[in-house]
Design a protein that fits this description.
- The chain is built from 15 helices and 15 strands.
- By secondary structure, it is of the alpha/beta class.
- Strands 13-12-11-7-10-9-8-14-15 form a nine-stranded mixed beta sheet.
- It starts with 7 loop residues before the first helix and ends in a 16-residue tail after the last helix.
Length: 445
Amino acid sequence: MKKQGMDRRSFMKQVAAASVAGPLILPNLSFASSANGRLQHAAIGVGGQGTSDLGNISSHKLVDVVALCDIDSERLTVASQRFPKARLYSDWRVMLDAEEGHIDSVNVSTPDHTHAPASMSAIKNGLHVYCEKPLTHEVYETRKVTEAAREQGVATQMGNQIHSHEFYRTAVHWVKEGAIGKVKAWHSWCGATYSNETKLRPAGEDPIPANVDWDLWIGVGQMRPYKHDTYHPFKWRNSREFGGGATGDFGCHIFDPVFSAIDVNTPLSIKSIAESNSDDIHPAWVENEYLFKGTDWTVDDTIVGTWRDGGKKPETSVSPHLPKGFQLPASGSLLIGEEGTLLIPHVDKPSLYPLNKFEKYPKPKLAPLSHYHDFVEAALGNVVAGSNFDFAGPLTEAVLLGNVANRFPGETLQWDAKNLKFTNFDAANALLQRNYRKGFKVRGL
């Protein structure tokens, strides 16, 4: 990368430090990401969500897609038809080595268990990283990837795209301007269920399709036989080894506006009850109760937040401001304040209650914002992305702690965020980090 006065990495380190202390004000500096001022971009995972991620990132006028990687050759072929000049790879490790000095950024749009190793490797190479949610599969990975990105001074963004949507930004604006007063409690929930024990670990083995590199798909995970329609391309989300269940898939979306609005960070403790407790699959539903340190936006020194999935919802009686017979949406959050209640549906307009009080409450005028272009502009040195890893890391950490806690139903786990451990339950500490498979070790993880 070219240098102009100071290099981009030094500049972004100063920005990160300054943003902790106060409002972010960017100096009038411009950093070219390559010789021609364009971002040379590579994709890791080009099917499913990866198709959307790559399409949206590449729609920025200053992005050139120069390399594509996927373990599924059929998906790679389809993507290459859209980007015929891109160099093709099946192994992201090979791609990062071969493309060193030729690429500036990557998006990581793979199953959850590959998020951390691919992102960390890219960060260590000085690349800007857009990584799908949840940021990682393990709590330990989240912390290490977040720290590495900060140390390297690279631009980052997690793929919780609704962070940049007018719906969530409006909800955050209303809380910040005091519409509902200080917040007393919140409830978040999700209608999705990712659990199917009868099909997840079926007996026997199926032939591996010619288009799938099964060894590379397993990656850092522990090898197991290939079974049709069990892992690739989607049902890996059910698996504790590869996915995060409904909590991991939706928690980083639905917690997002709450964390943005009231500035909570990692929890003090967490207690979970769950439909089942299996080494292999996520439960069909969970209810997690978090205790967080209070902030300037909360009533007390601590605040309780709950998470429910698998179709579980709070009773509307948790808020004195909702009308009788009110039906909550399938997924969303309730923030209960001193002066009112804010309902934030998942991907829908937020609303304030009681209705007669807030009927004419003004809606903020917000300029459209592309979550993907926000990342590109950050990689070009023009902004700090809204869901950068310094924000997304603690958010993901809280979400993933739920997947640890549901292994110990009914236990209140005390979390020491500074030292990355539970202080009262050693068995839970064993689930914070995985052992990477031989041949797939990653520096820093």
